[in-house]
Amino acid sequence: MQRSSAVFGRSDVARLLDIPEWLLANLSDKRYPYGITPSVRGGKGRGKKALYSLGDVYKVTVAHRLLEAGFVSFVVAEALKELFPKKPEATVGFRPSKAEDARYILLDLSLAYWVGQGKLPDEWRISNPQQQHWARLVTRSSLAGAWERGVLRAVFSMPFDELLNWVDSRILGREIAF
Q: What is the CA radius of gyration of the chain?
């Protein structure tokens, strides 16, 4: 994947992704749990606006889609921590060339640590949780395999690489299809 050194202001990101600017402000506000702060300094001194890297924009897009799917801020923030443990660019660096290698976001709420803390219904627990993260990237074949085994309960999946491709088409004008 070709790296982009493009940077974007808040209003640019909001316009390109067609999301409200106030939501983007909330995603980066320390009063909210999301932790999506712009990673590029816009200059020195007070009042200088920070800028978003392309990796930041990918992370914003995932957060926005999860919020649109109805997840509360706490769950979105925890999923972002799992999916993007380091810089966003580290997670999005690989892009598959074939559809069968495309990655999906899998949120298996039965493995989430807060289920055991009573924050989600008990019936979402599974008796023998595997040593996996509750929010992770999986391929289409492993996603289908997990459903067939009947192991997962209370799960949500969403195309990840297709979402990144959509961002690329909106921001960089690149069309990438499998």
A: 17
pLDDT at 173 over 90: no
Domain ranges of the chain: 7-171
The DSSP string of 19-82 is: --HHHHHHHH-TTSS------B---SSTTPPPBEEHHHHHHHHHHHHHHHTT--HHHHHHHHHH
Residues 6+ away with beta carbon under 8 Å from 82: 133, 134, 135, 136
pLDDT at 178 > cutoff 60: no
Quick one: tokens of 20?
């409200």
- Name the pTM for this structure: 0.78
Name residue, tokens 């997990």.
146
Q: How confident is the model at residue 142 (pLDDT cuts 50, 70, 90)?
A: confident
Asked if 96 contacts 148 with a C-beta cutoff of 8 angstroms, the reply is no
Pull the structure tokens for residue 134.
Answer: 């509750």
